[in-house]
Predict the structure.
Amino acid sequence: MKKLLFLSFALTIISLGALAQIVNFPSVNTADSHVTVIKKVETGKQYTVVTFDHYATHDSSWVVLNKEIYLQTDAGNKHYNFIKAEGVAVAPETRHTLTKAGDKVSFKVYFEKIPAGTKSIDIIEHAGKRDDGISFFNFYGVDLTHSNASAQEVKITEVVLAPPPATIQIDGDSVPVDTSGLSGLMSSFGPMYASMVKSMMDAQLSFYKQPGKITELAKLNKQYYDALVKEGFTKEEALKIITTESLLPKAAATSGK
């Protein structure tokens, strides 16, 4: 009787092991998201469930899962599609926001069950990489043959999103424009303008230093004043006009003040 009970217990354990395949912290050949860890891959009676740990790269960072995510095994190109997710927003839902850099969110993704004996899988949310710094949950060569004691250390580095390149429209097409030369030109314009103003002021001072030039300027301003009074301006108005609107450019007017 005891032998029968032991045999029944052993068969139960074996059958449960055959029904459930669990791999903890599987090794991954390549991953697009370097701040996400696969914590566990579990294949049960109905689903294959992948548990992820995702870490925030900066304050108020966000994470969202696309329903297009699927599994692909080493046995072929068949897709094992997304069923549901727990603990994370699924597009087009509101994004799951993490408050501070280094914060972690753990979530589970349920897929159609993969065949027993599968040695490796690819987890693909969106094939290919983007140039704007946004990464997808793409993991290639996830080893299902053995577990690891823990995940590799995750290095949190802040992702800086670069602005899109400047473009112009030509015949309906967007053509990128190299603005590096323009920025260099603008940075050199300041010193060039200062040098030009100095040259103009030096030239004016040299002109006024010539014999008789100051006397000519005084006579011209007197004639200007008399003409304004003759035309009906008061003396105060005429004086204000010749001091603010001189017939000749002032040296101080070129200083940029």
